[in-house]
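Colleagues,

For the teaching module next term, I've prepared a clean inverse folding example: a structure given as tokens, and then the sequence designed for it. I'd like students to try predicting residues themselves before seeing the answer, so please don't circulate the second half yet.
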């Protein structure tokens, strides 16, 4: 199977970045500089449970099939 160009549906790291972004936006106050932001990023990244990653990996065959069915187009993921 040819890999669709720039397919976020098949790029699992994009889904992890989305989770990280959601976690960072949950803070009541914005970070007070790059150092605090980096500390938050590190802390929240470490808090993403391995089961989340495992679920993404296990769901990849389904995603591949969906992308295949829409000829490389977008899916609900």
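(Answer key — instructors only)
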């Amino acid at each position: 199977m040819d890999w669709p160009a720039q397919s976020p549906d098949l790029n699992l790291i994009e889904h992890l970045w989305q989770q990280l972004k959601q976690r960072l936006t949950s803070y009541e106050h914005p970070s007070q500089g790059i150092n605090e932001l980096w500390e938050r990023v590190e802390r929240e990244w470490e808090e993403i449970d391995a089961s989340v990653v495992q679920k993404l990996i296990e769901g990849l065959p389904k995603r591949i099939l969906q992308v295949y069915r829409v000829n490389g187009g977008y899916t609900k993921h």
